[in-house]
Design a protein that fits this description.
about 200 residues, alpha/beta, Rossmann fold, 6-stranded parallel β-sheet, 6 strands, globular
């Protein structure tokens, strides 16, 4: 049984928080392969800047190039339109595969409202990672996981790691304001952004 991780998102841009999450995901879920999959059009959030899917894909390839077992896939970009997670799971599922889906806290909490959540739970094992330190969310997380277990028969597991509080929106703001982004994203990604003048 091949253990496959799926890490989707906008990745505009991919940063050190994404890389840290991917490493923890691979280690704690004992993954054989991790697919990093930039969305064409995310159904859950508005694209706030006009960065092409190709640029986001190229930045992901640079960001994850040194991680063994990680494959950056263009399957959602090639599919086009809104990138529904269930379509990606259908494409990757197989009798000899076990799929693990990585989610941030906000995405995990809203998973029951996604398109075809029943099928998402049937085809994969959702896993979440906290990228924030908001204690107010603790009880809501516990209750939501209990609700999912009762409704879908699966426990959502947590990747236990110290949150690396970095956001793509803050990085974009810093580029626009011509502030330092040192330590926030891989140097190769920073160079790509500056060479192509992507964020202002």
């Amino acid at each position: 049984m091949t253990r496959i991780g799926i890490y989707g998102g906008t990745f505009s841009p991919p940063h050190n928080g994404h890389i840290a999450a991917a490493k923890a995901f691979m280690e704690q879920m004992w993954l054989d392969i991790l697919y990093v999959i930039p969305a064409a059009t995310p159904p859950h959030k508005q694209m706030t800047c006009a960065i092409s899917p190709e640029d986001r894909l190229n930045m992901c390839r640079l960001a994850f190039s040194e991680m063994e077992g990680v494959y950056v896939s263009d399957m959602e970009i090639q599919r086009g339109g809104k990138s529904y997670t269930v379509d990606t799971l259908r494409e990757l599922t197989g009798e000899d595969r076990r799929l693990f889906l990585l989610l941030g806290t906000d995405m995990m909490l809203s998973l029951g409202e996604w398109y075809r959540p029943d099928e998402i739970f049937r085809l994969s094992y959702p896993v979440y990672i906290r990228r924030e330190k908001d204690a107010i969310l603790d009880q809501r997380i516990i209750q939501t996981i209990a609700d999912y277990n009762e409704k879908y028969g699966k426990v959502v597991r947590r990747i236990v790691t110290e949150p690396l509080v970095i956001s793509s929106s803050e990085i974009r703001r810093r580029f626009e304001a011509r502030e330092s982004v040192e330590g926030l994203l891989p140097p190769s990604v920073e160079k790509y952004i500056r060479d192509k003048h992507l964020y202002g």
